[in-house]
Amino acid sequence: MAKKRSGILGKLFNSLSEDREKTDAELPFAVMIFTLMAASGISPYNSWKKMRNLSFLQVFSKEADEVVRQVEVLGKDPLTVMYQRAEATDSKLYRNFLGGFVSSVRSGGKLADYMQSQLKSIFELRYINLNRSIERIAALIEAYSVMLIVVLCTYILFVIFSSTNVMDLLGGGSIGISPSMSYLIAFAIMPIMSCIFILMAHNMQKSAFPNLKDLYKKAIIFIIPAFAAIAAFGVIPGLIDSIKPLGFPEIATLGLTVTSIIPAIQYYRIAKINYNAEESIPSFIRDITEAQKTGQSPEKSIVQATKRKDYGPFSKFLNLIRSQIEWGVPLRKTFDNLKKDIRSWFVIVNFAMLVETIEIGGNSIESLEILSEYSEKEREIQVNRRVLLKPYILLAFMWSALIAVTTTIVALTSTMMTGVVSTDLAAAATMAMQDQLKVFSVGIIIQCWISGFFIGKISEGNFGAGFKISALLAVTAYVSLVASQLLLQGVFTLGLKPPTM
């Protein structure tokens, strides 16, 4: 745990400390482990010693190492060490837990009862914090919506400036809007603003699948060449002419969509297995608990639970577990094999606690009952979170269509008005607006593609979910641009040829 820092700067640093967030995130499961061990008759200090081996709780395994080090190397009393750790931590929740832990032991109270009381309180706080976090995420999405309105207004402003350049030719002058400024706005400033919001979403919404590095590495292999190709078509004159009838917006849409398809398919396979595992693990633990109540051994209880037929894709992992147990493979080794294929932290934590409960022995039925109850509650919390955040996906499609359609309408209307003022300038207006509309069309498509990762992070907590949404938003933006132009071609019958992308 991070030690307290003195002074105003230290307090500010602590308020932004990532260690505190990780501590609060792992605390419910650490308390669950302590509760299971207390129900099985394990002493508090031995519970800390066992906690060192729980690698899936990174913060608390390090904390356990520190507690054991101070006891065995420095010769301190375990309760004194825990009290000092309570004073040193930045997490208020962890401080309160340790303080009550020490007081309960010193007063001779029943530790298992205190642990269960704390566990219930912490999960209630998790549910409250869930609702608060959703409110914060909703506020972030509203701020992002405002940013997109600014994007839309900027696009409209530059479209009008482009029209003004042509109109100003009537007076023999020009306000001189540089084309490079359009590129800077469309391809640098606006994407950077979106990336800032994505980073904010990343800090607020943690992923249920922390190990997706292989997916992201493969995605980068496709993304870099795609953007390099888009940049080449935008910068090198005449290159776009070699692939006609395709234009710059078509190239951008195809490149970004194809880039997203392969990672999206891989993520779909990962999510399908892991979400099914998350849905199944509480029922699996409940089946083991009920089998234990009939007097079966832990191994036979697990084998019996794996025979249930309604676990979906998770069944193949359970069948593997059953085979390994029947061949005499130790339960912990079976768990290590499961971790190679399952990425859901929720599943890994619950299965690890199941293994610890069975290996500890003691009052395993009571411990399994506790594990079953709170596994079901945690699953309910996660499901509610995703359900409440899903509607924001629809909002993203509305953003994409609105930005594309509005920008096109303003561009074509400005061109039409130029033709009304001077038929001689109609051709010049059309050509100038074509260039601007191509630039901003590609900018809108890229902006919508980036927005998909923001929505993916918001809705499911990871960027992997954003690949499918990004591809769909890019296509939505392109279809909206084309449809709005085709529609306005039938409306504007003044003899002007509308700009084509």
Q: Summarize this, please?
A:
By secondary structure, this protein is mainly alpha-helical. It has helices spanning 7-15, 18-39, 44-51, 58-72, 78-88, 92-106, 111-167, 179-204, 213-235, 248-293, 298-306, 315-326, 331-339, 345-360, 364-389, 391-421, 426-460, 466-491.
Features:
disordered C terminus; elongated; disordered N terminus; 18 helices; 79% helix; 501 residues; mainly alpha
- First and last CA, distance: 56 Å
Number of strands: 0
Helix/strand structural class: mainly alpha
Strand content: under 5%
Shape: elongated
User: Percent range for helical residues?
Assistant: over 70%
Largest sheet: none
SSE sequence, one letter per element: HHHHHHHHHHHHHHHHHH
Q: Give the averaged pLDDT, no decimals.
A: 77
Q: Can you tell me the number of structural domains?
A: 3
Query: Given the structure, what is the number of helices?
Result: 18
Task: Describe the protein.
- The structure is a single chain.
- The chain is mainly α.
- It has 3 domains: about 5-110, no CATH class; about 135-275 and about 390-490, no CATH class; about 275-385.
- Helix content is about 80%, strand content about 0%.
- It is built from 18 helices and no strands.
- The chain has helices at about 5-15, 20-40, 45-50, 60-70, 80-90, 90-105, 110-165, 180-205, 215-235, 250-295, 300-305, 315-325, 330-340, 345-360, 365-390, 390-420, 425-460, 465-490.
- Helix 7 packs parallel to helix 16 (about 390-420).
- The longest helix is centred in the first third of the chain and has 57 residues, at about 110-165.
- The radius of gyration is 30 Å and the shape is elongated.
- About 40% of the residues are buried.
